[in-house]
Amino acid sequence: MSFETATSGIGRLDRLSYRDTAVHRLDPRAKVIATFLFAVAVVSFPRYEVLSLFPFFLFPILMAALADIPAGFIAKKVVAVSPFAVFVGIFNPLFDPLTVSIAPGVAVSAGWVSFASILVKFALTVSAALLLIATTSFPGICRGLRRLGLPALFVSQLLFLYRYLFVLMEETMRVVRARDMRSFGNRGAGVRVFVRIIGTLFLRTVERAERIYGAMLARGFRGDVPSMRRETFRPSDAFFVLGAGCFFSLCRFVPVPRLIGLLFRGGTG
Amino acid sequence: MSHHLLEFNDVRFRYPDGTEALKGVSFLITHGESVGIVGPNGAGKSTVLLHMNGHLLPTSGTVNVGEVPLRKETRSEIRRKVGVVFQNPDDQLFMPTVFDDVAFGPLNLGLPPDRVRERVHEALRQVNALALADKPPHHLSGGQKSAVAIATVIAMKPDILVMDEPAASLDPKSRRSVIGLLNSFTHSKIVASHDLDLILDVCARCLVIRDGQIVADGPASEILSNATLLAENNLELPLTLQGRPGREGARQ
Description:
The complex is a heterodimer of chains A (269) and B (252).
Chain A: H1 3-16, H2 22-25, H3 28-43, H4 58-67, H5 71-89, H6 92-95, E1 99-103, E2 106-109, H7 110-136, H8 138-147, H9 152-182, H10 191-218, H11 235-253, H12 256-268
Chain B: E1 6-14, E2 20-29, E3 34-38, H1 45-52, E4 60-65, E5 68-69, H2 75-81, E6 82-85, H3 89-92, H4 98-108, H5 113-126, H6 142-154, E7 160-164, H7 172-184, E8 188-192, H8 196-202, E9 205-210, E10 213-219, H9 220-223, H10 227-232, H11 239-242, H12 248-251
Parallel strand pairs in B: 3-8, 3-9, 6-7, 7-8
Antiparallel strand pairs in B: 1-2, 1-4, 4-5, 9-10
Helix pairs in contact in B: 4-5, 4-6, 5-6
Protein backbone atom coordinates (compact mmCIF):
# COMPACT_ATOMS: atom_id res chain seq x y z
CA MET A 1 0.00 0.00 0.00
CA SER A 2 1.42 3.36 -0.97
CA PHE A 3 1.54 6.37 1.28
CA GLU A 4 -1.12 8.19 -0.67
CA THR A 5 -3.75 5.44 -0.47
CA ALA A 6 -3.10 5.09 3.25
CA THR A 7 -3.88 8.76 3.81
CA SER A 8 -6.98 8.73 1.67
CA GLY A 9 -8.25 5.91 3.91
CA ILE A 10 -8.00 8.11 6.98
CA GLY A 11 -9.78 10.91 5.15
CA ARG A 12 -12.59 8.53 4.30
CA LEU A 13 -12.89 7.34 7.89
CA ASP A 14 -13.26 10.97 8.80
CA ARG A 15 -15.97 11.62 6.24
CA LEU A 16 -17.97 8.59 7.37
CA SER A 17 -18.37 10.25 10.75
CA TYR A 18 -20.49 13.05 9.23
CA ARG A 19 -23.37 10.67 8.59
CA ASP A 20 -26.50 10.98 10.58
CA THR A 21 -27.76 7.63 11.85
CA ALA A 22 -29.04 6.38 15.19
CA VAL A 23 -25.51 5.24 16.05
CA HIS A 24 -23.95 8.54 15.01
CA ARG A 25 -26.46 10.40 17.17
CA LEU A 26 -25.55 8.52 20.35
CA ASP A 27 -23.64 10.54 22.93
CA PRO A 28 -19.88 10.17 22.38
CA ARG A 29 -19.49 9.19 26.01
CA ALA A 30 -21.87 6.25 25.58
CA LYS A 31 -19.91 4.96 22.59
CA VAL A 32 -16.55 5.48 24.28
CA ILE A 33 -17.69 3.57 27.37
CA ALA A 34 -19.25 0.75 25.34
CA THR A 35 -16.13 0.36 23.18
CA PHE A 36 -13.96 0.36 26.27
CA LEU A 37 -16.08 -2.34 27.92
CA PHE A 38 -15.95 -4.31 24.70
CA ALA A 39 -12.16 -4.17 24.54
CA VAL A 40 -11.82 -5.15 28.20
CA ALA A 41 -14.18 -8.10 27.77
CA VAL A 42 -12.38 -9.32 24.65
CA VAL A 43 -8.88 -8.96 26.03
CA SER A 44 -9.76 -10.59 29.34
CA PHE A 45 -10.22 -14.01 27.71
CA PRO A 46 -7.49 -16.58 28.43
CA ARG A 47 -4.85 -17.04 25.75
CA TYR A 48 -6.10 -20.34 24.34
CA GLU A 49 -9.64 -19.14 23.84
CA VAL A 50 -10.78 -18.81 20.25
CA LEU A 51 -14.33 -20.06 19.79
CA SER A 52 -15.83 -18.10 22.68
CA LEU A 53 -14.63 -14.88 21.08
CA PHE A 54 -16.74 -15.24 17.97
CA PRO A 55 -20.06 -14.04 19.43
CA PHE A 56 -18.33 -10.70 20.04
CA PHE A 57 -18.21 -10.07 16.31
CA LEU A 58 -21.90 -9.35 16.57
CA PHE A 59 -21.09 -5.95 18.14
CA PRO A 60 -18.94 -4.46 15.34
CA ILE A 61 -21.16 -6.02 12.68
CA LEU A 62 -24.28 -4.58 14.25
CA MET A 63 -22.66 -1.17 14.73
CA ALA A 64 -21.50 -1.08 11.12
CA ALA A 65 -24.88 -2.15 9.81
CA LEU A 66 -26.86 0.32 11.92
CA ALA A 67 -24.47 3.17 11.18
CA ASP A 68 -24.40 2.40 7.48
CA ILE A 69 -20.61 2.00 7.46
CA PRO A 70 -19.30 -0.22 4.63
CA ALA A 71 -18.00 -3.34 6.40
CA GLY A 72 -15.54 -4.04 3.58
CA PHE A 73 -13.81 -0.73 4.19
CA ILE A 74 -13.37 -1.42 7.90
CA ALA A 75 -12.19 -4.97 7.16
CA LYS A 76 -9.59 -3.63 4.74
CA LYS A 77 -8.28 -1.21 7.35
CA VAL A 78 -8.03 -4.03 9.89
CA VAL A 79 -6.04 -6.11 7.44
CA ALA A 80 -3.81 -3.12 6.70
CA VAL A 81 -2.70 -2.82 10.33
CA SER A 82 -2.69 -6.58 11.01
CA PRO A 83 1.09 -6.99 10.57
CA PHE A 84 1.46 -5.59 14.09
CA ALA A 85 -0.65 -8.40 15.53
CA VAL A 86 1.03 -10.99 13.33
CA PHE A 87 4.44 -9.97 14.65
CA VAL A 88 3.23 -10.11 18.22
CA GLY A 89 1.97 -13.67 17.84
CA ILE A 90 4.13 -15.17 15.12
CA PHE A 91 6.54 -16.91 17.47
CA ASN A 92 3.87 -18.48 19.65
CA PRO A 93 3.67 -21.65 17.52
CA LEU A 94 7.44 -22.09 17.90
CA PHE A 95 7.74 -21.42 21.61
CA ASP A 96 4.62 -23.24 22.70
CA PRO A 97 5.13 -26.87 21.72
CA LEU A 98 2.24 -28.26 23.73
CA THR A 99 -0.31 -29.97 21.55
CA VAL A 100 -4.02 -29.70 21.94
CA SER A 101 -6.80 -31.34 20.01
CA ILE A 102 -9.16 -28.90 18.43
CA ALA A 103 -11.44 -31.45 16.83
CA PRO A 104 -11.69 -35.20 17.18
CA GLY A 105 -8.52 -36.54 15.61
CA VAL A 106 -6.96 -33.17 14.80
CA ALA A 107 -4.20 -32.01 17.11
CA VAL A 108 -2.14 -28.85 16.68
CA SER A 109 0.48 -27.03 18.69
CA ALA A 110 -1.06 -24.89 21.40
CA GLY A 111 0.98 -22.01 20.00
CA TRP A 112 -1.19 -21.95 16.90
CA VAL A 113 -4.26 -21.70 19.06
CA SER A 114 -2.92 -18.76 21.04
CA PHE A 115 -1.77 -17.16 17.78
CA ALA A 116 -5.30 -17.48 16.40
CA SER A 117 -6.63 -16.06 19.64
CA ILE A 118 -4.38 -13.02 19.32
CA LEU A 119 -5.52 -12.44 15.75
CA VAL A 120 -9.19 -12.69 16.61
CA LYS A 121 -8.81 -10.37 19.62
CA PHE A 122 -6.92 -7.95 17.44
CA ALA A 123 -9.55 -7.99 14.69
CA LEU A 124 -12.29 -7.44 17.25
CA THR A 125 -10.71 -4.55 19.14
CA VAL A 126 -9.35 -2.75 16.10
CA SER A 127 -12.58 -2.95 14.16
CA ALA A 128 -14.46 -1.68 17.22
CA ALA A 129 -12.02 1.22 17.57
CA LEU A 130 -12.30 2.09 13.87
CA LEU A 131 -16.07 1.97 14.10
CA LEU A 132 -15.96 4.21 17.14
CA ILE A 133 -14.07 6.81 15.08
CA ALA A 134 -16.26 6.32 12.02
CA THR A 135 -19.44 6.83 14.03
CA THR A 136 -18.30 9.44 16.52
CA SER A 137 -15.53 11.38 14.74
CA PHE A 138 -12.22 11.89 16.44
CA PRO A 139 -13.09 15.33 17.87
CA GLY A 140 -16.31 13.81 19.19
CA ILE A 141 -14.33 11.14 21.01
CA CYS A 142 -12.07 13.84 22.46
CA ARG A 143 -15.09 15.79 23.71
CA GLY A 144 -16.44 12.59 25.23
CA LEU A 145 -13.14 11.85 26.95
CA ARG A 146 -12.93 15.41 28.27
CA ARG A 147 -16.42 15.16 29.70
CA LEU A 148 -15.57 11.80 31.20
CA GLY A 149 -12.91 13.61 33.17
CA LEU A 150 -9.71 13.20 31.18
CA PRO A 151 -7.28 16.14 31.81
CA ALA A 152 -7.59 19.11 29.41
CA LEU A 153 -3.92 18.96 28.47
CA PHE A 154 -4.19 15.36 27.34
CA VAL A 155 -7.35 15.95 25.34
CA SER A 156 -5.97 19.01 23.56
CA GLN A 157 -2.88 17.00 22.62
CA LEU A 158 -5.14 14.41 21.03
CA LEU A 159 -7.08 17.09 19.19
CA PHE A 160 -3.92 18.62 17.75
CA LEU A 161 -2.60 15.19 16.85
CA TYR A 162 -5.70 14.65 14.77
CA ARG A 163 -5.82 18.09 13.22
CA TYR A 164 -2.18 18.15 12.16
CA LEU A 165 -1.94 14.51 11.16
CA PHE A 166 -3.38 15.53 7.81
CA VAL A 167 -1.08 18.50 7.43
CA LEU A 168 1.97 16.43 8.33
CA MET A 169 0.92 13.69 5.93
CA GLU A 170 0.59 16.18 3.10
CA GLU A 171 3.96 17.64 3.92
CA THR A 172 5.57 14.21 4.01
CA MET A 173 3.94 13.38 0.71
CA ARG A 174 5.41 16.50 -0.88
CA VAL A 175 8.90 15.80 0.45
CA VAL A 176 8.73 12.17 -0.65
CA ARG A 177 7.55 13.22 -4.09
CA ALA A 178 10.36 15.74 -4.39
CA ARG A 179 12.82 13.01 -3.46
CA ASP A 180 11.38 10.47 -5.87
CA MET A 181 11.50 12.98 -8.68
CA ARG A 182 15.21 13.43 -8.31
CA SER A 183 16.30 9.98 -7.25
CA PHE A 184 16.89 7.64 -10.10
CA GLY A 185 16.71 3.97 -9.46
CA ASN A 186 17.59 3.29 -5.86
CA ARG A 187 20.02 6.12 -5.45
CA GLY A 188 18.59 8.70 -3.13
CA ALA A 189 15.98 6.34 -1.75
CA GLY A 190 18.26 4.86 0.89
CA VAL A 191 18.09 5.01 4.65
CA ARG A 192 20.43 7.99 4.94
CA VAL A 193 18.19 10.20 2.88
CA PHE A 194 15.17 8.90 4.73
CA VAL A 195 16.72 9.86 8.05
CA ARG A 196 17.35 13.37 6.77
CA ILE A 197 13.79 13.66 5.56
CA ILE A 198 12.56 12.72 9.01
CA GLY A 199 14.89 15.38 10.44
CA THR A 200 13.58 18.03 8.07
CA LEU A 201 9.99 17.13 8.85
CA PHE A 202 10.74 17.34 12.55
CA LEU A 203 12.25 20.81 12.27
CA ARG A 204 9.36 22.01 10.15
CA THR A 205 6.93 20.60 12.67
CA VAL A 206 8.63 22.44 15.52
CA GLU A 207 8.47 25.70 13.56
CA ARG A 208 4.85 25.10 12.68
CA ALA A 209 4.04 24.37 16.31
CA GLU A 210 5.51 27.73 17.24
CA ARG A 211 3.40 29.52 14.63
CA ILE A 212 0.26 27.71 15.73
CA TYR A 213 0.93 28.59 19.34
CA GLY A 214 1.35 32.21 18.23
CA ALA A 215 -2.00 32.08 16.45
CA MET A 216 -3.59 30.59 19.57
CA LEU A 217 -2.17 33.28 21.82
CA ALA A 218 -3.35 35.92 19.36
CA ARG A 219 -6.85 34.65 20.02
CA GLY A 220 -6.64 34.62 23.77
CA PHE A 221 -5.58 31.03 24.53
CA ARG A 222 -5.00 30.45 28.23
CA GLY A 223 -4.55 26.72 28.63
CA ASP A 224 -7.87 25.01 27.99
CA VAL A 225 -9.35 24.44 24.55
CA PRO A 226 -12.93 25.60 24.94
CA SER A 227 -15.83 23.71 23.40
CA MET A 228 -19.39 24.85 23.00
CA ARG A 229 -21.02 21.57 22.26
CA ARG A 230 -23.02 20.24 25.16
CA GLU A 231 -24.28 16.80 24.42
CA THR A 232 -26.81 15.51 26.86
CA PHE A 233 -26.71 11.94 28.03
CA ARG A 234 -30.19 10.75 27.11
CA PRO A 235 -32.04 7.62 28.25
CA SER A 236 -31.30 6.04 24.86
CA ASP A 237 -27.57 6.48 25.52
CA ALA A 238 -27.90 4.83 28.93
CA PHE A 239 -29.92 2.05 27.32
CA PHE A 240 -27.20 1.56 24.70
CA VAL A 241 -24.44 1.29 27.31
CA LEU A 242 -26.54 -1.02 29.47
CA GLY A 243 -27.51 -3.24 26.54
CA ALA A 244 -23.96 -3.44 25.27
CA GLY A 245 -22.67 -4.18 28.78
CA CYS A 246 -25.20 -7.00 29.26
CA PHE A 247 -24.33 -8.48 25.88
CA PHE A 248 -20.60 -8.36 26.61
CA SER A 249 -21.00 -9.99 30.03
CA LEU A 250 -23.23 -12.65 28.54
CA CYS A 251 -20.58 -13.45 25.92
CA ARG A 252 -17.82 -13.24 28.49
CA PHE A 253 -19.23 -15.43 31.23
CA VAL A 254 -21.56 -17.80 29.40
CA PRO A 255 -19.97 -20.15 26.86
CA VAL A 256 -22.35 -19.19 24.07
CA PRO A 257 -20.87 -21.30 21.24
CA ARG A 258 -20.96 -24.39 23.43
CA LEU A 259 -24.58 -23.71 24.33
CA ILE A 260 -25.46 -23.35 20.68
CA GLY A 261 -23.61 -26.58 19.98
CA LEU A 262 -25.48 -28.36 22.78
CA LEU A 263 -28.76 -27.02 21.53
CA PHE A 264 -27.95 -28.20 18.07
CA ARG A 265 -26.89 -31.65 19.22
CA GLY A 266 -29.84 -31.86 21.54
CA GLY A 267 -32.15 -31.03 18.67
CA THR A 268 -30.74 -33.62 16.32
CA GLY A 269 -29.93 -36.32 18.81
CA MET B 1 -11.53 57.75 18.12
CA SER B 2 -8.06 57.79 19.55
CA HIS B 3 -8.28 54.21 20.80
CA HIS B 4 -7.92 52.91 17.26
CA LEU B 5 -4.50 54.46 16.82
CA LEU B 6 -1.49 52.30 16.17
CA GLU B 7 1.82 53.97 16.73
CA PHE B 8 5.40 52.72 16.28
CA ASN B 9 8.08 54.97 17.81
CA ASP B 10 11.63 54.28 16.70
CA VAL B 11 11.11 50.54 17.10
CA ARG B 12 14.25 48.45 16.96
CA PHE B 13 14.33 44.72 17.15
CA ARG B 14 17.15 42.26 17.26
CA TYR B 15 16.49 38.53 16.97
CA PRO B 16 18.24 36.30 19.51
CA ASP B 17 20.71 35.19 16.82
CA GLY B 18 21.90 38.80 16.49
CA THR B 19 20.14 39.73 13.26
CA GLU B 20 18.92 43.28 13.48
CA ALA B 21 15.52 43.05 11.82
CA LEU B 22 14.16 46.51 12.59
CA LYS B 23 16.40 49.57 12.74
CA GLY B 24 14.15 52.35 13.96
CA VAL B 25 10.67 52.03 12.51
CA SER B 26 8.21 54.85 13.16
CA PHE B 27 4.71 55.41 11.84
CA LEU B 28 1.25 56.33 13.00
CA ILE B 29 -1.87 54.67 11.68
CA THR B 30 -5.15 56.36 12.58
CA HIS B 31 -8.71 55.14 12.86
CA GLY B 32 -10.22 53.59 9.74
CA GLU B 33 -7.06 53.80 7.68
CA SER B 34 -6.12 51.04 5.29
CA VAL B 35 -2.38 50.65 5.01
CA GLY B 36 -0.32 48.36 2.82
CA ILE B 37 3.15 47.28 3.86
CA VAL B 38 5.41 46.27 0.99
CA GLY B 39 9.09 45.57 0.60
CA PRO B 40 11.58 42.97 -0.54
CA ASN B 41 11.89 39.54 1.06
CA GLY B 42 13.55 39.71 4.44
CA ALA B 43 12.99 43.46 4.78
CA GLY B 44 11.23 43.10 8.12
CA LYS B 45 7.55 43.13 7.14
CA SER B 46 6.66 40.08 9.17
CA THR B 47 8.70 41.33 12.12
CA VAL B 48 6.69 44.55 12.07
CA LEU B 49 3.43 42.60 12.01
CA LEU B 50 4.56 40.38 14.89
CA HIS B 51 5.07 43.51 17.00
CA MET B 52 1.54 44.68 16.36
CA ASN B 53 -0.05 42.15 18.68
CA GLY B 54 2.85 41.66 21.00
CA HIS B 55 4.11 38.38 19.63
CA LEU B 56 7.48 40.09 19.65
CA LEU B 57 8.43 42.94 21.97
CA PRO B 58 10.67 45.76 20.72
CA THR B 59 14.31 45.67 21.81
CA SER B 60 14.04 49.45 22.06
CA GLY B 61 11.44 52.03 21.10
CA THR B 62 7.70 51.80 21.82
CA VAL B 63 4.55 50.47 20.24
CA ASN B 64 1.24 52.00 21.31
CA VAL B 65 -2.19 50.68 20.51
CA GLY B 66 -4.67 53.37 21.42
CA GLU B 67 -3.48 54.61 24.81
CA VAL B 68 -1.98 51.25 25.72
CA PRO B 69 1.77 50.88 25.43
CA LEU B 70 2.89 47.40 24.38
CA ARG B 71 4.52 45.57 27.29
CA LYS B 72 4.54 42.04 28.50
CA GLU B 73 1.69 42.80 30.90
CA THR B 74 -0.50 44.57 28.35
CA ARG B 75 -0.16 41.95 25.66
CA SER B 76 -3.49 40.23 26.22
CA GLU B 77 -5.28 43.59 26.21
CA ILE B 78 -3.57 44.50 22.97
CA ARG B 79 -4.47 41.17 21.41
CA ARG B 80 -8.13 42.04 21.92
CA LYS B 81 -7.68 45.23 19.97
CA VAL B 82 -5.45 43.97 17.19
CA GLY B 83 -6.45 40.85 15.29
CA VAL B 84 -3.72 39.22 13.22
CA VAL B 85 -4.44 36.85 10.34
CA PHE B 86 -1.29 34.86 9.72
CA GLN B 87 -0.08 33.92 6.31
CA ASN B 88 -0.63 30.18 6.36
CA PRO B 89 -4.26 29.30 7.15
CA ASP B 90 -3.15 25.85 8.32
CA ASP B 91 -1.37 27.54 11.20
CA GLN B 92 -4.38 29.68 11.93
CA LEU B 93 -7.03 26.96 11.86
CA PHE B 94 -6.23 24.47 14.56
CA MET B 95 -9.62 23.35 15.85
CA PRO B 96 -11.48 20.26 14.62
CA THR B 97 -14.30 22.12 12.88
CA VAL B 98 -14.71 25.56 11.32
CA PHE B 99 -17.33 26.46 13.89
CA ASP B 100 -15.11 25.51 16.83
CA ASP B 101 -12.26 27.43 15.30
CA VAL B 102 -14.19 30.64 14.85
CA ALA B 103 -15.64 30.21 18.35
CA PHE B 104 -12.17 29.75 19.89
CA GLY B 105 -11.38 33.47 20.19
CA PRO B 106 -14.79 34.63 21.45
CA LEU B 107 -14.88 31.79 24.00
CA ASN B 108 -11.46 32.80 25.26
CA LEU B 109 -12.75 36.35 25.60
CA GLY B 110 -15.21 34.86 28.08
CA LEU B 111 -18.42 35.56 26.14
CA PRO B 112 -21.53 33.56 27.04
CA PRO B 113 -22.40 30.69 24.64
CA ASP B 114 -25.28 32.37 22.80
CA ARG B 115 -23.23 35.51 22.20
CA VAL B 116 -20.43 33.28 20.91
CA ARG B 117 -22.84 31.54 18.55
CA GLU B 118 -24.04 34.91 17.26
CA ARG B 119 -20.50 36.12 16.71
CA VAL B 120 -19.54 32.95 14.86
CA HIS B 121 -22.55 33.17 12.55
CA GLU B 122 -21.97 36.84 11.92
CA ALA B 123 -18.29 36.35 11.12
CA LEU B 124 -18.90 33.35 8.88
CA ARG B 125 -21.71 35.14 7.06
CA GLN B 126 -19.41 38.09 6.47
CA VAL B 127 -16.87 35.89 4.71
CA ASN B 128 -19.56 33.82 2.92
CA ALA B 129 -18.57 30.63 4.71
CA LEU B 130 -21.63 29.89 6.80
CA ALA B 131 -22.19 26.63 4.93
CA LEU B 132 -18.76 25.38 6.03
CA ALA B 133 -19.44 25.66 9.77
CA ASP B 134 -19.40 21.92 10.49
CA LYS B 135 -16.52 20.99 8.21
CA PRO B 136 -13.06 20.16 9.48
CA PRO B 137 -10.44 22.62 8.19
CA HIS B 138 -8.44 19.95 6.36
CA HIS B 139 -11.34 19.33 3.99
CA LEU B 140 -11.52 22.96 2.84
CA SER B 141 -10.04 24.41 -0.32
CA GLY B 142 -7.31 27.06 -0.14
CA GLY B 143 -9.75 29.92 -0.73
CA GLN B 144 -12.17 28.62 1.89
CA LYS B 145 -9.35 28.24 4.40
CA SER B 146 -8.31 31.86 3.86
CA ALA B 147 -11.86 33.11 4.28
CA VAL B 148 -12.34 31.11 7.46
CA ALA B 149 -8.97 32.27 8.82
CA ILE B 150 -10.18 35.86 8.41
CA ALA B 151 -13.48 34.96 10.09
CA THR B 152 -11.66 33.55 13.15
CA VAL B 153 -10.14 36.96 13.71
CA ILE B 154 -13.10 39.21 12.90
CA ALA B 155 -15.25 37.14 15.28
CA MET B 156 -13.25 38.76 18.10
CA LYS B 157 -14.23 42.19 16.79
CA PRO B 158 -10.78 43.72 16.86
CA ASP B 159 -10.34 47.45 16.33
CA ILE B 160 -7.48 46.86 13.93
CA LEU B 161 -7.20 44.03 11.46
CA VAL B 162 -3.69 42.94 10.46
CA MET B 163 -3.06 40.53 7.61
CA ASP B 164 0.06 38.87 6.29
CA GLU B 165 -0.30 37.90 2.61
CA PRO B 166 -4.07 37.36 2.80
CA ALA B 167 -4.33 36.12 -0.78
CA ALA B 168 -1.10 34.22 -1.23
CA SER B 169 -1.48 31.03 -3.28
CA LEU B 170 -5.15 31.62 -4.02
CA ASP B 171 -6.65 31.24 -7.46
CA PRO B 172 -7.68 34.52 -9.13
CA LYS B 173 -11.34 34.18 -8.25
CA SER B 174 -10.71 33.41 -4.58
CA ARG B 175 -8.19 36.22 -4.49
CA ARG B 176 -10.78 38.57 -5.93
CA SER B 177 -13.30 37.56 -3.28
CA VAL B 178 -10.73 38.11 -0.51
CA ILE B 179 -10.16 41.60 -1.92
CA GLY B 180 -13.92 42.23 -1.93
CA LEU B 181 -14.03 40.97 1.65
CA LEU B 182 -11.23 43.25 2.81
CA ASN B 183 -12.90 46.23 1.18
CA SER B 184 -16.12 45.49 3.04
CA PHE B 185 -14.43 45.94 6.43
CA THR B 186 -14.56 49.33 8.06
CA HIS B 187 -11.83 48.40 10.55
CA SER B 188 -8.42 49.92 10.40
CA LYS B 189 -6.60 47.52 8.12
CA ILE B 190 -2.95 46.71 7.73
CA VAL B 191 -1.97 44.38 4.92
CA ALA B 192 1.53 43.11 4.21
CA SER B 193 1.88 41.60 0.77
CA HIS B 194 3.91 41.19 -2.38
CA ASP B 195 0.66 41.35 -4.32
CA LEU B 196 0.84 45.03 -5.21
CA ASP B 197 -2.41 44.97 -7.15
CA LEU B 198 -4.14 43.77 -4.02
CA ILE B 199 -2.58 46.60 -2.01
CA LEU B 200 -3.67 49.05 -4.68
CA ASP B 201 -7.23 47.72 -4.53
CA VAL B 202 -7.50 47.58 -0.76
CA CYS B 203 -5.25 50.24 0.74
CA ALA B 204 -5.27 54.01 0.57
CA ARG B 205 -1.82 54.33 2.09
CA CYS B 206 1.36 52.40 1.58
CA LEU B 207 4.57 51.91 3.56
CA VAL B 208 7.71 50.60 1.93
CA ILE B 209 10.14 48.78 4.23
CA ARG B 210 13.67 47.97 3.25
CA ASP B 211 16.39 46.58 5.44
CA GLY B 212 14.50 47.24 8.67
CA GLN B 213 13.61 50.83 7.90
CA ILE B 214 10.71 52.71 6.38
CA VAL B 215 11.93 54.17 3.10
CA ALA B 216 8.64 55.53 1.80
CA ASP B 217 5.24 56.37 3.26
CA GLY B 218 2.42 57.96 1.30
CA PRO B 219 -0.75 57.44 -0.73
CA ALA B 220 -0.74 53.96 -2.28
CA SER B 221 -1.61 55.31 -5.73
CA GLU B 222 1.51 57.51 -5.68
CA ILE B 223 3.95 55.03 -4.23
CA LEU B 224 2.79 52.13 -6.33
CA SER B 225 3.08 54.14 -9.54
CA ASN B 226 6.64 55.26 -8.79
CA ALA B 227 8.58 52.79 -10.93
CA THR B 228 12.03 53.90 -9.71
CA LEU B 229 11.17 53.62 -6.04
CA LEU B 230 9.61 50.20 -6.62
CA ALA B 231 12.59 48.93 -8.58
CA GLU B 232 14.95 50.02 -5.80
CA ASN B 233 13.01 47.76 -3.47
CA ASN B 234 12.85 44.60 -5.57
CA LEU B 235 9.28 45.46 -6.54
CA GLU B 236 7.67 46.38 -9.81
CA LEU B 237 4.64 48.29 -11.00
CA PRO B 238 1.32 46.61 -10.22
CA LEU B 239 0.11 44.73 -13.29
CA THR B 240 -2.90 46.99 -13.65
CA LEU B 241 -0.58 49.97 -13.98
CA GLN B 242 1.79 48.33 -16.41
CA GLY B 243 -0.53 48.80 -19.37
CA ARG B 244 1.25 46.47 -21.70
CA PRO B 245 -0.89 45.92 -24.76
CA GLY B 246 2.12 45.57 -27.01
CA ARG B 247 3.82 42.45 -25.69
CA GLU B 248 4.48 41.08 -29.12
CA GLY B 249 6.62 38.26 -27.84
CA ALA B 250 3.79 36.95 -25.73
CA ARG B 251 1.24 37.31 -28.43
CA GLN B 252 2.94 35.20 -31.02
